[in-house]
Amino acid sequence: MAGGFVSQTPGVRNYNYKLTPKVFITCFIGAFGGLIFGYDLGISGGVTQMEPFLEEFFPAVHKKMKSAHENEYCRFDSQLLTLFTSSLYVAALISSLFASTITRVFGRKWSMFLGGFTFFVGSAFNGFAQNIAMLLIGRILLGFGVGFANQSVPVYLSEMAPPNLRGAFNNGFQVAIIFGIVVATIINYFTAQLEGNIGWRISLGLACVPAMMIMIGALVLPDTPNSLIERGFTEEAKKMLQSIRGTSEVDEEFQDLIDASEESKQVKHPWKNIMLPRYRPQLIMTCFIPFFQQLTGINVITFYAPVLFQTLGFGSKASLLSAMVTGIIELLCTFVSVFTVDRFGRRVLFLQGGIQMLISQIAIGVMIGVKYGTVGTGNIGKSEANLIVALICIYVAGFAWSWGPLGWLVPSEISPLEIRSAAQAINVAVNMFFTFLVAQLFLTMLCHMKFGLFFFFAVFVFIMTIFIYLMLPETKNVPIEEMNRVWKAHWFWGRFIPDEAVGVSAAEMQQKSV
Ligand code: BGC
């Protein structure tokens, strides 16, 4: 396939490449990095519903759950239980900051390896847990693993991919996340039916499988040309670029990588530099995109779909089944993004998905409000409950082709090399912080805000859709080391980007294109 594309940004270059099996296989294996995050996201909600698990570690919650309940909204409210789920995200937040140095100094693959390794040890602690301490240590190790993987994998994929298929390749990370969630939900469905403690032990212990996949994957993966150049392996970088692009004529792209690396060498302290005015657009985006991604409210569904469905009056088996259905829908709909993100662009998906989520959230809020009111008592009939599940699926589909994959893609592709690792660490840290907050506060919020919770998230979805419309330039098809030109051309961000940052002058650009 030839690498021609029509760019909307003036001066953005056009590189030679073929879609090689090597780049495909490499990105396929690299995307495994999303599996550990997904497995964990999917497993916790189900495990915290298993009675033997609650009896063993959270007897008070178990008692409350069994006792007669007058108020559906407050049935599962327990800070300790949510701490089990959310402690992981605090650990991930901390490790992503360390991961940024490892990713930059030793290469992307070693962060991935470390991620797999710590996740592996964490899964053993959890699977064999005898007490709360083992359970929490396990969670924290899992969190370290997720932080390392989420910091390195999206950058790895974005750097390996040919520029005009970067969106599709990077979305492999989200596909792996959702695949992990779905597999975990299916495992929970079966283990929940086992007697005694064996069920939750299998669910938590099986986290070792995706962990091993990443560890082995990272060992066989090559590093990206960008990272090789950054670390001084210029010859190897050129060979790597030629082999992943399937042509020896990579001079132009290679030169851009060298230039980017030269420029990045001027920057001694990525953490200090990202605060400079010229990196303001990247700083704002890497803070706001993950913040907004979590404020879509998606993890209310991811973590608590079974709880939510039980609140709606479903039995516990039916709840797990419905959670499985929403997971499968999310997986299928993520492919819509894979196949369209490089054609229609990031903005179209963000805007369409945002509007779809907004409408469905309002409808869910209204329906639950009408049925349960503010008191939290009442009965939801079967057909109404099914309608709510359908609305949840529409909401999940909207997320699946917009904020889900793009929340990882866009931050990984908008920063120049000199601040890329730091920016991605900020992205992960902010994402994890708000994942933690939502996980920690959801049950309490549901208990106090009741159906208003859905309107709460809807307000944020409205704001983020406007934000994208006004502030995010289109980045499809733009080579990653050429991204400064996109910011320079933006109506608002342009003022922050100095002329030197776009490399060549306008006159030079014209000469080159002749
Ligand atoms: C988000 C997670 C979410 C997952 C599945 C990811 O992109 O970062 O917080 O749980 O998608 O919906």
From TrEMBL:
InterPro entries noted in UniProt: MFS_dom, MFS_STP/MST-like_plant, MFS_sugar_transport-like, MFS_trans_sf, STP/PLT_plant, Sugar/inositol_transpt, Sugar_transporter_CS
CDD domains, per database record: MFS_STP
Residue intervals of the Major facilitator superfamily (MFS) profile domain: 26-476
Segments traversing the membrane: 23-43, 80-98, 135-157, 169-192, 198-221, 283-307, 319-341, 348-368, 388-410, 422-445, 451-472
Predominant cellular place of this UniProt entry's protein: membrane
Membrane topology category: Multi-pass membrane protein
SUPFAM superfamilies: MFS general substrate transporter
Gene Ontology cellular component annotations, sorted alphabetically: membrane
UniProt KW keywords: Membrane, Sugar transport, Symport, Transmembrane, Transmembrane helix, Transport
A molecular function GO annotation: symporter activity
Domain of life: Eukaryota
KW Cell membrane (keyword) present: no
Family the UniProt entry places it in: Belongs to the major facilitator superfamily. Sugar transporter (TC 2.A.1.1) family.
The protein's name in its UniProt record: Major facilitator superfamily (MFS) profile domain-containing protein
Organism: Eruca vesicaria subsp. sativa
